[in-house]
Amino acid sequence: MSALKTHFGASGEVLQRLASGIDDRKIEPPGAVKSISRETTFGKDILSHSLLEATLRYLSERVGSELRKQSKQSRGIILKLRYSDFTTITRSLTLKQSIDSDDAIFNAGLGLAEKALGHEKRPVRLIGIGVSNLTQPGRQLGMLDSSTERVAQLNRAVDRIRQKYGFTAIQKGRTLPLKDVFPETGKDYTLHTTSLSR
């Protein structure tokens, strides 16, 4: 301990105690989740709009699945893009109504991506999507609108299938191009340097 104290001063004693498993601080549970996001870095720069869209769709489905698993909804959508020159941008959108459906997350993210990319042909190295402003479920249904409840039932059914058989057991047509890019291991795609954040 004297070597640590000599080298690091008072912090050396703290380091020694922590390394020995001695910690008198109060144990506190982790804070509430404030956002959910998924992103991946491509092995090489991507110019293909269809591949970017397929990846964004897949990541949106992962975010939506996690959102429903936590019994949450979201009012904020965040898109993250990193270009080949490592310039990183984020774009966000606040929604009028809370959502938890894959389609709503993807459509909002796609709108942000199309605005961010515009007509430029800049290669993309990383793409990610997230949700923020998390809320408890509950929305006002229209008297004549049964489509919202049908989408919720469909999402629950897809979640059950994926939980039992794996995430790639049921896919939208838009994500099929990913089979040519990302290896499928077991029941899921293996994304390059995938990042799962809360």
Can you walk me through this structure?
By secondary structure, the chain is of the alpha+beta class. It has a single domain (35-138, 155-197), classed as Dna Ligase, domain 1. Helix content is 37%, strand content 27%. Helix 3 packs antiparallel against helix 4.
CATH architecture classification: 2-Layer Sandwich
Strand-and-helix sequence, N→C?
HHEHEEHEHEEE
User: How many E strands?
Assistant: 7
Biggest β-sheet description:
5 strands, antiparallel
Core attributes:
198 residues, alpha+beta, Dna Ligase, domain 1, five-stranded antiparallel beta sheet, two-stranded antiparallel sheet, 7 strands, 37% helix, globular
A few lines on this structure:
The chain is of the alpha+beta class.
